[in-house]
Design goal:
This protein is an alpha+beta fold. It is 29% helix and 22% strand. The strands form 5 sheets. Strands 1, 2, 9, 10, 11, 12, 19 and 20 form an 8-stranded mixed β-sheet that branches.
Length: 480
């Protein structure tokens, strides 16, 4: 019998699990995929939104601002790249200047530092800004995060503190039996006193297993461009257009890895799994971005991708116990600004909702920091040479584009958080994220995973189980 089962291992589920691990509880996290951070949390804008945009008084406003305030410390504890580069929300028409004033007033109500910058100042801050730009709302507390590591390291920290994780477990049904719940997956049954639904675009489906609900989730697809690393500053801040009913609009931003990201689109979907891109949508993204920033070097494009956001019919985050079962907690509709909100949501769910149905005793062995990862690129030449002399595996480059060494890959594979696929390795190390998109390093990575897990290369998945990188059994082969 578990004390708590968390359904969903995205950013929200990971931070709920991390906060649960602060207490003496028997906790299990279930996810239908082969890895954590495999849906919305791995395909978003990677932004720590300041909180100027959400309607004052909403859960979005509350948790966005709290999460942004927590983010720098959280990233230090979890060894996650984070940069507070600020955001600029740009007006390109005279009529939009009034809207900037309205957004500034909203920022003030939400407790977010902001100022309106005129055209001259804006051009100093962003030399590549569009000629049509007339002014902008500047929010200095906005920033950029590595969303993969934020989620993965939060879950790793939870596992280090005693939480269990079961992957490839798709929840099919939930029944209340006496004083607990039985959670049925495709091949197992789990019992728990409390169930927390953090299932993203499927959260309404999970909630409806317990009781009739008066809300629903619409998957909203966003498509993006990724540009390569290149010399010179292209943009210095996260640059937004004015927000609309569809969302915050097509942004242009650098990332913590030195790439640039452009997007997203925003289109409602029926399919809760479709993350395909299409040329017409991407052409519109390109057009919208070019209205913000001039001379965008789209020839530096190395990939496109799409993600799904769980847009709730309530137009606000749903964070509450179910009406009929206080021990069943819904954490649903966590669309943008969900990533930045996730640390604050995780804390609230445990301290304010779980605490009402379970006695929380402090875990005196709880460690808030994960063991730092070795980062050869952050070292001086002398430090790097000393590291390689002691550990030669950090001197063997596997991914030339992103400069990822064998030592870094082995370190990830030997951590408590499972790394079961090429995509999982890519999210944790960036091996395969560069200009060649894994064309050179993926075969090497496959062999490393196979050797470390003592399986044949034909059993190494690209992403989900069954999607094998090399689907034929090898007849012979050597050590790496």
């Amino acid at each position: 019998m578990k004390d708590v089962i968390v359904i969903g291992a995205g950013a929200v589920g990971a931070f709920i699990a991390r906060n649960l691990s602060r207490f003496n509880l028997n906790v299990l996290v279930l996810d239908k995929d082969n890895d954590v951070c495999n849906a919305t949390s791995c395909a978003n804008s990677a932004i720590s939104h300041s909180g100027y945009d959400p309607v004052p008084g909403t859960k979005k406003a509350k948790f966005n601002v709290l999460g942004n305030q927590m983010m720098e410390q959280v990233c230090k504890e979890l060894d996650v790249p984070y940069e507070q580069i600020g955001t600029l929300t740009v007006a390109t028409e005279e009529a939009q200047l009034k809207t900037l004033e309205e957004l500034k007033e909203r920022a003030t109500i939400n407790g977010v530092p902001s100022e309106i910058v005129d055209q001259a100042r804006l051009r100093e801050m962003e030399p590549n800004i569009s000629e049509e730009a007339l002014g902008a709302l500047y929010c200095p507390t906005g920033g950029i995060i590595n969303p993969f590591l934020l989620t993965c390291h939060a879950m790793e920290n939870a596992l280090d503190n005693g939480v269990e994780l079961a992957l490839n477990q798709e929840v099919k049904d939930i029944k209340k039996v006496s004083d607990h719940f039985v959670v049925y997956t495709q091949d197992k049954e789990y019992e728990s006193k409390v169930v927390i639904n953090a299932a993203g675009v499927y959260s309404d489906k999970i909630a409806a297993m317990i009781e009739p609900i008066d809300w629903f989730i619409t998957p909203r697809k966003g498509e993006y461009y990724v540009l390569d690393h290149f010399k010179g500053e292209f943009v210095n801040h996260v640059v937004f257009p004015l927000p609309s009913a569809k969302g915050k609009g097509v942004l242009v931003s650098k990332t913590t890895s030195g790439n640039y990201i452009i997007g997203p689109s925003s289109e409602p979907m029926d399919d809760r799994e479709c993350v395909a891109c299409d040329s017409l949508t991407l052409a519109n993204v390109k057009q919208q971005a070019s209205m913000l920033i001039k001379n965008i070097p789209f020839y530096q494009q190395i990939r496109v991708y799409a993600g799904l956001r769980a847009t709730p019919s309530t137009h606000d985050f749903i964070i509450e116990s179910s009406k009929s079962e206080p021990a069943f907690i819904n954490v649903a509709g966590i669309e943008s600004p969900g990533l930045v909100s996730s640390p604050a949501i995780g804390k609230y769910v445990v301290e304010e909702l779980v605490s009402k149905v379970l006695k929380l005793e402090e875990n005196k062995n709880y460690k808030k920091n994960i063991k730092p990862y070795t980062k050869p690129l952050d070292l001086s030449n002398e430090e790097r040479n000393a590291l390689i002399k002691e550990h030669p595996e950090f001197g063997r480059m596997v991914c030339q584009c992103e400069k990822v060494s064998l030592g870094e890959i082995l370190e990830v594979l030997h951590r408590k958080l499972p790394c079961n696929s090429l995509k999982a390795l890519k999210k944790r190390t960036r091996a395969g994220f560069g200009k060649c998109q894994g064309g050179f390093c993926q075969p090497i990575s496959v062999s490393i995973i196979a050797e470390e897990k003592e399986i044949d290369v034909s059993k190494v998945s690209y992403d989900k189980d069954g999607g094998y990188f090399a689907p034929y059994k090898s007849n012979k082969g050597g050590k790496r």
